[in-house]
Every structure is written in C-alpha cells, then in structure tokens.
Amino acid sequence: MSLPTQMTAHPSTTIPPPHLTGLAKLRWAVKNPPADPNVTFAGKTVLVTGANTGLGFEAAVKYAQKGCKKLILAVRSLSKGEAAKAAIIEKSNRPTEPFISILAVDLSSFPSVHAFATALEKEVHSTGLHIALLNAGLANPAYTKGTHAYDTALQVNVLGTALMAHLILPLLRPTGQDPPHLTFVNSFAHTEVQREWYAAPPSAGSLLAFANDADAFEQRKHYAAVKLLGMSVMQHFARTAAGRVVVNSCCPFFCRTNLGRNFGQAMQVVMGAVQYFTARSGEEGARTLVGATALGEESQGAFWHHDVLYPMGELAMDGDEMGKCWGEIWGVLEREGQVGAGVGAGAGVGGV
C-alpha cells in the first residue's frame, strides 16, 4: 500500500494542556514528541536551508529517507555541505542515487542570496521546485552588526530570509495534485512580544527598529521580536501566494541543537545540561519541520506546533501590525537596492 503525499492539519487550543508552564511544559513536550510524518516525498524536489547542521540536517535526512527525488542543501560552507551530503546518503541508504545537490548561500549577505537564487533557478530548471523549507537561523547573546548595518540575527532570520522567499517563490511548482510548499521555521517565542517593548522612542512603534537597536538589546526580547518579524514575512507570502503555494510556519519547540553556538562556552555547557532533561532530540524536532511541508491548504498562513495548528500570538494576529512590519521589511530591501520599488510590497497586507 502506497503512502500518502499529504497530511491534514487540525487546530487545537488544548495541546499542550493550558495549565502547564515552565519546566512542566518542557517535560510534557519531551514525553509527547511530534509524530514522524507518515508520508512520501517521491517525485519531489526539496530545498532545505541551513541543511548541514541541527534541525535542517535532520529534516534533510528525513526527506531523503522518505524518497524525495532531488534534495538541495543550502549551506554557508560547501565543505560542510559535502560532509552533510555524505552523512545523509549513509543514513538514507541511497548510495547509488545522485539525488543531492549543494548550493552555497550566506543569508547575512544580500548579494549572496541573489547569487543563490540564480544558481537555484538553474538547478531546478528541469525538475521544478516543489518544497522550500526555510530553516536557517541564528541566535546571538549580544547585538552584532552585520555587513549591511543591521543586527546579524535580524539580517539572517528576517531580511535575508524575506529576500530569499521573494526570489524563489516563482520557482515553486505543484507535483501532480499536490501544491508546492514554502515553510518558514519560526518559534513559539513570537507570542511573548509585548507592544510596550517598542512603543516609546527611539523605536517609536517600530518592531524592526527595536530589533535593530543595540542599546535596547535584551537577548530573550530580541529573539522573540525577530521571530514575530518572521511571522509577518510568512503572512505576507501566505496572502500573496494563496491558491498557488501553501505557505505556513512551524515551531519544533525546545530541541537539542547547536542554535546557541555563538554563546560562550560556559553558557553552552549550562544549556547542554538543561537540554538533556528538557529538550526534544533534533530528529524529533525535524518531524515538525517535515510535517509542515506536507500539510494541505488548511495550513495556509498558519502555525504548525505540537502536531496541531496552534494559535498564533496576539500581535501576530493583528493584521495592521503585521502589515506594518512587512512594509518596513520591504522598505529595507528597497533601500538596499535588493528589490524593485513597489513590486511585491503588499503595503495593505492584513492578517491571514
């Protein structure tokens, strides 16, 4: 009996149980990991960003194990991409199939994103692109200015990812009856943002300005703000691509990965000890990522978390606020000369 190619998602407000908080919620998540998606990706070309490590690597392994026709690993380092390719081939037991390609991209560099999109277009010219899992992410312990005068985490997680999504969206094609998928890896942390964090000057109501303010930097607040900005990116593309591409977001919850690799050694030791008792494995977290790319149109603009369509945060449900955030993100891309003025801006985007 052949496996299905899609899953149906359902909303829930009771998973995890609402009364659980803190450590109890983390322990619940460890004891109740997401199910491994019972689907096949046969015949599909899949792109995974940040594919050489952590959740991206584990997701790439799953796509290979579940029969994808072509797997494209988007990585910063080609040598690390080659190492990941070898490991994926071994884990998927597909040593004789030349099904993995490696493309370089540095999301902290706008020119690199453009070069990647050009290379990707050539790579999928004959097959089309069916699934794009935008997983690459960064978390820093302090404000770090990148090459484009924006905080590095903001640049990678939001600005570079938004530009990539804009450039690769036209490449996505359906497979038979299955729509193509564009999935953004996000976090439940987006629900923690409070409007008062950025209401007063100098942010003056701009979440983007708050996330790029070195003087206002507090690690947890910054992480949450970046994730909420990421939700505005997802919502924009979910609205503009509705009926053609399934666009959604997902959160794997707390997992044992190297996301905190830029933190000091002492903090990494502490985080490792905490993760041992309170975090899902990378393989379990990847189930959420891969599952999100197999959901139907009921997941358009939605948030896949703990195997349900989970309620988004209050600000993420505020269409005006999300539209404002997207407008500011697009404004950056315009000012940096990365996109044509007015094209795809979607200034009036509401919530989805």
Automatic annotation (TrEMBL):
Keywords, ordered alphabetically: Oxidoreductase
GO molecular function: oxidoreductase activity
Family matches, as InterPro entries: NAD(P)-bd_dom_sf, SDR_fam
Protein's UniProt name: NAD(P)-binding protein
Species of origin: Ophiobolus disseminans
Lineage: Eukaryota, Fungi, Dikarya, Ascomycota, Pezizomycotina
